[in-house]
């Protein structure tokens, strides 16, 4: 007798912001010499900053002399008009609950989910996935706690965040666009190798980053004796800013 196995995974959002930094107070003297002194806290080509009276105000109309991005291994600078120095972390899940359809012991079942992260003026961020593997009552598909390939006929649950060719063409590498610096984390950045440890970091950015689009590839393998029924799992994605 054959049994039909079905499963779906719902992904729900948890957003966690962590701020860890230290500050010091420094007094900055005005730029001056024996004959001249500059009182403005910002020196620009227009020379009209804070020029105003009770009835009129002047704005610098020179425009941006330099616009672009300069980056090192730890920091980046985007030159152009003044922007706020307040840190911001934006996160969105671009797919809701995902459905594996029917499981079979003869081949793996895969599906994907996508999310996006961008951060501004922080040192970077880390992304964690928390939750249990798919389960049906008391039976849970074992998580792949050691990175490895798909093996049909053996119970497995794993993920990665890169493009794969096995067991099929599924997933995508992180898409950083023009200014993103996000990347899949170690253990989740190797094609055709899957793993799942709840709470592990699966993606990160080492510095402030523009928008990065991530794709999570989910893998499920079942055995011929895996109990039939509906398998469900809730996955929580946690994004933490680092400073």
Polypeptide structure, described:
This protein is mainly β and 243 residues long. The protein has one domain: Immunoglobulin-like (Sandwich), CATH 2.60.40. The protein contains no helices and 16 strands. A six-stranded mixed β-sheet has the order 7-1-16-9-14-13, with no helix packed on it. It has a four-stranded antiparallel β-sheet with strand order 6-8-15-12, with no helix packed on it. It has a two-stranded antiparallel ribbon with strand order 2-3. Strand 2 and strand 3 (37-38) form a beta hairpin. It is elongated, with a radius of gyration of 25 Å.
Keywords:
0% helix, 243 residues, elongated, mainly beta, 4-stranded antiparallel β-sheet, Immunoglobulin-like, 6-stranded mixed β-sheet
Task: List the SSEs and their pairings.
Elements: E1 5-15, E2 31-32, E3 37-38, E4 68-71, E5 76-79, E6 88-93, E7 98-103, E8 109-120, E9 124-131, E10 135-136, E11 139-140, E12 156-160, E13 183-184, E14 201-205, E15 209-221, E16 229-242
Task: Classify the secondary structure makeup into a structural class.
Answer: mainly beta
- Average per-residue pLDDT, rounded, comes to 79
- Measured as a percent range, the helix fraction is under 10%
Q: How would you characterize the largest beta sheet?
A: 6 strands, mixed
Measured by DSSP, the beta-strand proportion falls in 35-45%
Rg is 25 Å
Outline: elongated
The total domain count is 1
Strand line-up of the largest beta sheet? 7-1-16-9-14-13
Name given to the CATH architecture: Sandwich
Q: Distance N terminus to C terminus? A: 57 Å
What is the number of strand segments? 16
Stretches with pLDDT under 50, minimum 5 residues = 1-28
How many H/I helices?
0
Name of the level-1 CATH class = Mainly Beta
Order of helices and strands: EEEEEEEEEEEEEEEE
Determine the CATH topology.
Immunoglobulin-like
């Amino acid at each position: 007798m054959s049994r039909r196995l079905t499963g779906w995974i719902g992904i729900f959002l948890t957003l966690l912001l962590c701020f860890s930094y230290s500050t010091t107070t420094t007094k900055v003297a005005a730029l001056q010499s024996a004959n001249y002194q500059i009182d403005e806290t910002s020196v620009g080509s227009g020379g009209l900053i804070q020029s105003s009276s009770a009835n009129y105000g002047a704005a610098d109309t020179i425009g941006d002399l330099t616009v672009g991005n300069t980056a090192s291994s730890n920091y980046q600078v985007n030159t152009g008009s003044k922007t706020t120095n307040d840190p911001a972390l934006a996160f969105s899940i671009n797919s809701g609950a995902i459905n594996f359809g029917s499981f079979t012991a003869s081949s793996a079942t895969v599906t994907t989910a996508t999310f996006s992260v961008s951060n501004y003026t922080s040192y970077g961020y880390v992304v964690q996935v928390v939750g249990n593997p798919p389960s049906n009552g008391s039976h849970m598909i074992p998580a792949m706690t050691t990175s490895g390939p798909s093996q049909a006929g053996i119970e497995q649950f794993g993920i990665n965040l890169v493009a794969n060719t096995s067991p099929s063409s599924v997933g995508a590498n992180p898409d950083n666009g023009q200014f993103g610096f996000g990347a899949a984390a170690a253990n989740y950045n190797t094609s055709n190798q899957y793993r799942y440890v709840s709470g592990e970091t699966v993606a990160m950015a080492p510095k402030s980053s523009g928008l990065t689009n991530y794709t999570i590839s989910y893998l499920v393998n079942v055995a011929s004796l895996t109990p039939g029924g509906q398998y469900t799992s809730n996955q929580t994605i946690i994004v933490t800013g680092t400073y």
